[in-house]
Fold this sequence. Notes:
Elements lengths: L1 H13 L1 H18 L3 H22 L3 H22 L5 H25 L5 H28 L12 H13 L12 H27 L15 H6 L2
Amino acid sequence: xxxxxxxxxxxxxxxxxxLLVLILATLLVEPFLGQGPGPELLTRILFxxxxxxxxxxxxxxxxxxxxNFVILGIWLVLVLLHFAGRPYPQAMAFSALVLLFGVIxxxxxxxxxxxxxxxxxxxxxxxxxxxxxLAWAVLFIQIENRTPGSFGLDTSGDPxxxxxxxxxxxxxxxxxxxxxxxxxxxxxxxxxxxASGTLYIAILIGSIVGRFQRPPDRGAADPPTQxxxxxxx
Length: 233
């Protein structure tokens, strides 16, 4: 409990910066460390910290916070059962997706209602962008696990790491073409993922940048005073 309290204090201070670091770390664990109990446990811990950090950073109401805690508790129980040899993969994946979309909602709500455009808002926008890619990666992984062959993956590589990479290049609309969706559900969801990344940049990032207060143009001529108007040329 002391470690958790310390983390919440750090999260309340650094807010979106800490959340951005945790999201990036989650995206990098599996591609760099591969599969195994160690990387899997680390990914689960980082995911739980992301959910807790988002609730602190977004300053959600008490009712929503309690609902998130309940779902997070269910997910943690399923994770413990998974490591104890009694896995419920579908239930664990569903609860993880619910938590992810809850975190995305918290992030979007902050970005939309935050009136000032400052560094905190820009870091929050970056965290939301990578969070979107993480959510699509989790969904793509579940599709591949449920229906193997839904994506054209390299059979010698790690499917999870490949789909995280695929999610990032899809959301950013890079589309290198080395991994392609094969099944019909994978294709339509990939198209929606690409559209969501484009809309995120166009709508949310555009609105945040538009809130920046532009300094007055000192080179522009000042409007004439009342005395100058009365005196004439």
